[in-house]
Amino acid sequence: MKQKKAHRYSTAARVWTIVGSSFMALLGVLCITAGVLLDWGYGLMQQDTGGDVPHHEQPVIPEEEPDDPSENPDYQQGNQEDVDSGSELQSIPIRGNQSGVRNILLLGIDSKTFSGRSDTMMILSINDNTKTIKLVSFLRDTWATIPGRDKDGDMKDDVAKLNAAYAYGKSSLLRKTLEQNFRLDIDDYIGVNFAVLPKVIDAVGGIDVKLTAKEMSQIPANGCYVAIPTPGKDCDGQGGFVSLKGAPGTYHLNGFQAMQYARIRKLDSDFKRTERQREVVSLLIAKAKKMSYSQLVSVLTTVLKHVETNMSQDEFLSFAADAASYVSYPVDMDYSVPQAGEYTGTYINGGAGLLLHDPKKTVEALHKHLYG
């Protein structure tokens, strides 16, 4: 079966592919390079106080854009009963932090007010036993059961795409959803909203990316574009979209261009798109590690006000105290859930999502990757 070609989402949802990735690099800066600044930086962040959102206050979340069956001809029709309720997973122990391994949930929220979907979901796993850092991506369209949410009153947990759990009940409900569907107990959460978009990339001076001819066709040559030309206000008088020109090769991209690169959706699959995101992360972390103290202060002042966490100041500073030991750890960014070939594109209640072939196999492989 073909991999899904992602349908077109709203602007806010689309930009989140790079927002989350940019924040992964920022987190790398905070945890690996600038631990000494976190005492000051913690006060700039917003606090997620935790707790569930009452059912009568939970929002109705519209689809980003109606799913058109003609865009996904390989998708099959399904129903809520096709999504495992967790019964098959009960034999798998719930895993959390353990000696030498710490997991942190990293989210990108498609809202300025931390009230939307978590369209970028990753686990940052620091393993002191193997001296590695692993970054695991969860594909947002994965079908999952949402613990305790029963909108239709059938006494069963509702089924929704994974990225809806945060909007229904903030990080508390999303963490419960990950526990129920993937047998992971994650205490700590850090998120960022899309307003921070290309600022991290520009703050490190841009990144050098090796591009194919097809990828170049999706990236604006002048670093930005507008629909209607307005001299002096539209990228030096140039309106509309004009792509990069020249032979395929390595190009220096600013924040806006890198954003376009990481959000390319028309050329191939979601898996290739997330591969581009991880490449951007890797390049950003490499540059961010070389930033001076004054540069870090400037970046943090701009960005941290767009960050939310449920960690207490003591927990956050304790994390920072260990940062120096992570400098030499290689970062593994090649794992996503589900893996290619482990799902079927399936319509449920009119929405197009990814149905796991074998939830137990997926969870066992994920646990082996994080703890093995």
Overview of the molecule:
The protein has 372 residues and is of the alpha/beta class. It has a single domain (11-205, 269-371), classed as Aminopeptidase, CATH 3.40.630.190. It contains ten helices and 14 strands. Strands 1-11-8-3-4-5-12 form a seven-stranded mixed beta sheet, with helices on both faces. The protein has a three-stranded mixed beta sheet with strand order 2-13-14, with no helix packed on it. A two-stranded antiparallel ribbon has the order 6-7.
Rg on CA atoms, Å: 20 Å
Please work out how many helical segments DSSP would assign.
10
Low-confidence stretches: 1-25
CATH class: Alpha Beta
Count of domains: 1
CATH topology: Aminopeptidase
Class derived from helix and strand content: alpha/beta
Write the layout of secondary structure elements.
Elements: H1 11-33, H2 38-41, E1 46-47, E2 76-77, E3 101-109, E4 118-127, E5 132-138, E6 143-145, E7 159-161, H3 165-182, E8 188-193, H4 199-203, E9 207-211, H5 213-216, E10 249-253, H6 255-262, H7 270-288, H8 293-303, E11 307-309, H9 313-321, E12 331-337, E13 343-348, E14 351-356, H10 359-371
Parallel strand pairs: 1-11, 2-13, 3-8, 5-12
Antiparallel strand pairs: 3-4, 4-5, 6-7, 8-11, 9-10, 13-14
